[in-house]
Amino acid sequence: IADHIRTLSFAVADGALPSNEGRGYVLRRILRRAVRYGRQKLEAPEGFFARLAATVAAEYGDDFPEVRDRLAHIQEVLADEESSFSSMLARGIKEFDKRTQALAEAGDTQVDGATAFFLYDSMGFPLDLTQLMAREKGLAVDEVGFEAEMSAQRDRSAAAARAAKGGGGRSFVLEAEQTAALQAMGVEPTDDEAKYAAASEGSLAGAVVKAIYNGAGFLGAGEAAGEAAGPVALVLDKTHFYAEAGGQVGDVGEIRASDGTWRFEVTDTQAYAGFVVHVGRVVEGQVGP
Fold this sequence. Notes:
- The structure is a single chain.
- The protein has 289 residues and is of the alpha+beta class.
- It has 11 helices and 7 strands.
- It has a 5-stranded antiparallel beta sheet. Strands 1-2 form a two-stranded parallel ribbon.
- Strand 6 and strand 7 (275-284) form a beta hairpin.
- It is globular and about 65 Å long.
């Protein structure tokens, strides 16, 4: 953790930022490894990592004044990144433990590529973090299978982007910009624990529509989507719909208002950074966030 906070503090002081590409993704991976270790192994409180930047500034500020001068910026960047990952961390660890427990019971010693990709795509776990956690349990990770899943996802994203650009359809892929917007709106990652009991319990009551995405942006307060709106995507606070992952096709079905004022036909279910996206059309009434 000490090495990681030093690396990130100096990098951010020099102008680098965590991101999904290039050196930015290296920084993101370093931070997520440190946060996971601190939270799971050391039982450190949420937000512990960003606060350590002050110690780096105190220890190295005389020789490297830029670290001390830009401390507030460093802490802000690290706190935002840490908070974003922390919102998914506990669920990711729980999912990892559940799946590796099933492997152990079956006598397997390798985490399959689909599971590794699910943790990457839905929980924000970089592949090397999953590999590290697997090694702690004496397991390996199927990298070839992971890369195959990654390639398939790239193909799906490219096809969706082409369709949206050409006007042949709308893209409901939530990139970093959209997930950051959801967080800024105060929307928490979707609680999808109910999906494990869906087969026995049937419908799920009490879910709340937290956001509506039309492919270009999120509807604002007071706005609503009706039958004429065309395809839109609903983000709920909780769901029992399975999102597409690991070769499993996303669930289809129907979402209805408890008072019967609207119905929404779900034609696909996807998940991005912990947010479950229900894609479909309003078939009756109007739906608002």
